[in-house]
Amino acid sequence: MGRRVGLEVSLACAEAVKLCNADVIAAYPITPQTHIVEHLSELVADGHLDAEFVPVESEHSAMSACVGSAAAGARTFTSTSSQGLALMHEILFIASSLRLPIVMAVANRSLSAPISIWNDHSDIMAERDIGWIQTFAENGQEVLDLTIHAFKVAEDSRVNLPVAVNLDGFILTHVIEPMEMPEQVEVDAYLPAYKPSQWLNPAKPISLGMVGMPEVYTEAKKANLEALEGSYPVIKEHWQGFAKAFGRSYQPIETYRSDDADTLFVTMGSLGETCMSAVDQMREDGRSVGQVRIRLWRPFPVDDFLAAIKGAKNLIVIDRALSPGVPAGPVATELRALLYAKGVKPFVANYVAGLGGRDVTRTDFAAMLEETERAAASGQAITCQMVGVKE
Amino acid sequence: MISAAEALKDFQKITPKNIPLVEPFSKGHRACQGCGEVLALRMVAKAVGMDMIAVSATGCMEIISSPYPQTAWEVPWIHVAFENAAAVASGIEAGRKALIRKGRIKDDGAKVVAFAGDGATADIGIQALSGALERGHDFTYVCLDNEAYMNTGIQRSSSTPYGAMTTTSPPGPKSKGQMTWKKNMPMIAAAHNIPYVATASPAWHIDLMNKVKKAVTVPGPAYVHIYSPCPTGWRCGPETSIETARKVVQSRVFPLYEVIDGRFVLSRDIKKPIPVKDYLDTQRRFRHLGEKDIAYIQKRVDDDWDRLLSLVQATNPVAAE
Asked: Tell me: the pLDDT tens digits for A62-83?
């Protein structure tokens, strides 16, 4: 069993990387990710983590150096936010296509303009198609656990894909939380040293990143797709292993008081905990309401999601990002498409809330429920409705 | 870290009698006839040897060497994107350093070498290159400079020389072609105070290979800038590449020199230069230039040569000769 500690979540993320004995960290500072990389550079400077800390000159180079490092066979970590993630955009696709097991913590933050250092999911929602495994944490313990799990999944020879662990900027990164810190021996047992099947090895040369002519490009992309889809059972398997090793269990889709609920909130990230508290209050008020939380965003766990919402009359899907010009936020767009394809037709209300650090309160959830129940009864659509806009 | 001069104390020179027989970059690639760039690349590869880990920026050399499932690379090779060869190389170096220190791979002495064209170096990749040089990674960066974006169809770069015709610097009534002077990349690299910087031309292949060998021998970052004739883009015959690569040096347009620990050393003192016109005449990309234009270029070449000589003098307080 680990130790109970009170720790800032960013530091917990860095401690997780230390427990995983990463070989290379290449990173560029950006708020609110900074505490993660500051602490990692301290751990390296103090000799607590035997790694190369590469203080690159941009996020583009951070991800590029990570690609080089992972291709050299090293366990590789980086972290970024917002504009930094956007600057990495080009290389993110290449990291997954070259099947390199990089782990990245994304301290989710809004995108400019206007420039805002505060939280929402605009950064990661612009990177939905990068071919990475993507998970979302709700609290500090989950950040720590998902980071360890990320290395385990990424480096599994059945997967060989990069993993992004999402944690909400400030709401998580800058908050001190109680958590259980695993012992080094426990992590070593769960996550042995990375043994790549091939790497840039002069004794056994490989060519990586070759030209894909029209005769092979489609097949290469098909192979990437199969790799990402094929990672799903491995992700679950390693969550089961994690539960055995550390006593905390995770699911691709998690539910809260959802069994008999007419209406389900669908959340991602730290909003989930506020929502749980709101659900408790609404339940006390006699409302038939529950919650579904998306932990695994890529590959999207279709069957888990369908099982979780089975029987619900209404879904309230909360997006923390806009998809301008599309009649719903990114999460709701995908869920509606999925439900339509599966012939499941609950009433789907879609709210966009918590942009650029705007608080989403229990009262907001209660108002969404009221409005959704009224709209469902009258058949009026709620889509891409922005919460708390000052007129 | 020891100095470059110290690391090169017992340097074993490559001579016409001991040119390495290895071919880390093999035959059968798809470069144009007479490509001076692929010739330079082959020489670099021979000088480095089979213990090279190569990184290519997007560009001609990457395209012609790796149409899946064929590869011309007999050594580990990676291509990621256009602007990041230096950053990728720094990641490989850092990864290997950690793995060797932790005893997870053996120290095989492999050399990390990044290859990039002039656009990938002087334009889109200059930030990543500057970062990697500043951080002091132990790697060699080779710029194969064919003075324009040739892979995309001869568009101008900041390394295109004044007056040159490209598809985005066409001469016309309002333009002489490229209207700016070639960016001086080797000097920019040298300004990073790295142990070793050199310029080279494939017309002096032994000199070129020795410079590459020195670059991979010194600890820390090294930068080698190689003039790489492109018959396709320069509008000259494929048989003229070496001649052009010779004349560019003989005319002082592209001086051959090294910067070792900040000390400038001329590789060839061109005491009796040929006129710049003789060099420009080898390529049709300059054929629209008139006498005045050529005189203007000649003046600049003379001034640049003088400046280089003054740097040699300033950094070698005791005259070597």
From this structure: 999 999 999 999 999 999 999 9
Beta strand spans in A93-198 (E): 103-108, 133-136, 163-168, 176-181
Q: Is B104 on the interface with A (CB under 8 A)?
A: yes
- B157: tokens are 């770069």
Strands A253-256 and A347-352, by their bridges, are unpaired
ipTM higher than the 0.95 cut: yes
A203 CB within 8 Å of a chain B CB: yes
Rounded Cα distance between A271 and A352, Å, is 12
Pairing of strands A314-319, A263-267: parallel
Give the C-alpha separation, A140 to A137, whole Å.
8
Q: Give the pLDDT of residue A213.
A: 96
Q: Is residue A331 less than 8 Å (CB to CB) from chain B?
A: no
10 Å CB burial of residue A117 (0-12, 13-18, 19+) is middle
- Using H for helix, E for strand and C for coil, what is the string for A224-274? HHHHHHHHHHHHHHHHHHHHHHHCCCCCCEEEECCCCCCEEEEECCCHHHH
User: Which B residues, 167 through 206, put their C-beta within 8 Å of a C-beta on chain A?
Assistant: none
CA quadruple A328, A332, A338, A343: dihedral positive or negative? Answer: negative
3-class SS at B37?
Answer: helix
SS3 content of chain A, % helix, strand, coil (to 5): 45, 20, 40
Chain A and chain B share a number of CB contacts under 8 A equal to 169
CB contact (8 A) between residue A26 and residue B91: yes
Sheet holding A314-319, edge to edge: A253-256, A289-294, A263-267, A314-319, A347-352, A385-386
Q: Is the pTM of this model over 0.95?
A: yes
